[in-house]
Amino acid sequence: MKMTGENSSLSSEITMEDVKNLIKKKDEIEEQIKAYYDVLEDQGVGVEGALVDEEGYPRSDVNLYQIRTARHNISCLQNDHKDIMVEIEEALHKLHAREKTKRQQDETGAQDEAMEQQVTLPPPFARVDAVTQGSPACGAGLRVGDEVIEFGSVNTANFQNLQNIASVVQHSEGKSLRVAVIRDGQKAQMSLTPQRWSGRGLLGCNIVPINR
């Protein structure tokens, strides 16, 4: 008895729930096969035991109809069992293949997004090589290694030397400056307010130019 219907035409949109249902049907078939084997065991003949006596007459000490029915059903159910095991294997293969494809697409999408961002990011003109704890720069979120692409009005296009940044800082004491950096290949933005604090200067960080 070939399994028909939705189980024989496994959809490419197979889900884990579908696999669980197939496994449940497999378990039910195995239970039915076991029940028929129990019938044969009770009759004392098994699957291959003779149903005729030594003289060739049908045995009268067993239920021939029950035995023949059990043997026939075991044969049919074993075929069903083979079919559903193939379906389970195909379903699992499709499920794993789809998960692998989805994983690859997600990874490709993330890589494309990162590459696109890297392509659109301007080259940095300075790098942060020191940040003092408790300073305005530390409070704003600047970190050592950050590569600066924007510091207030100073950007990659108009940067000439560190005096440009120093001038912006001197004229912006107590005012919030927008700072953009490249960190781990990603753009990060923050607000930095130059102001007096317990340490030297108005920022509490050291910025060095990047030679291009």
Structural features, described:
With 212 residues, the protein is α+β, with helices and mostly antiparallel strands. It contains 4 helices and 6 strands. Strands 1, 2, 3, 4, 5 and 6 form a 6-stranded antiparallel sheet that branches. A hairpin with a 2-residue loop joins strand 4 and strand 5. The two termini are 76 Å apart.
A few lines on this structure:
The chain has 212 residues and is an alpha+beta fold.
Write the layout of secondary structure elements.
Blueprint: H1 16-43, H2 64-120, E1 126-131, H3 136-140, E2 147-151, E3 154-155, H4 162-170, E4 177-183, E5 186-192, E6 205-209
Antiparallel strand pairs: 1-2, 1-6, 2-3, 2-4, 4-5
Distance separating the two termini = 76 Å
Low-confidence stretches: 1-11
Kindly state the number of beta strands.
6
| Strand fraction | 15-25%
> Quick one: biggest sheet?
6 strands, antiparallel
- Give the overall shape: rod-shaped
**What's the pLDDT, averaged over the residues?**
86
Which bin fits the share of residues in helices?
Answer: 40-55%
Name the helix and strand elements from N-terminus to C-terminus, one letter apiece.
HHEHEEHEEE
Structural class: alpha+beta
Number of separate helices? 4
What's the gyration radius in Å?
Answer: 38 Å
Which terms would index this structure?
6 strands; 212 residues; disordered N terminus; 47% helix; alpha+beta
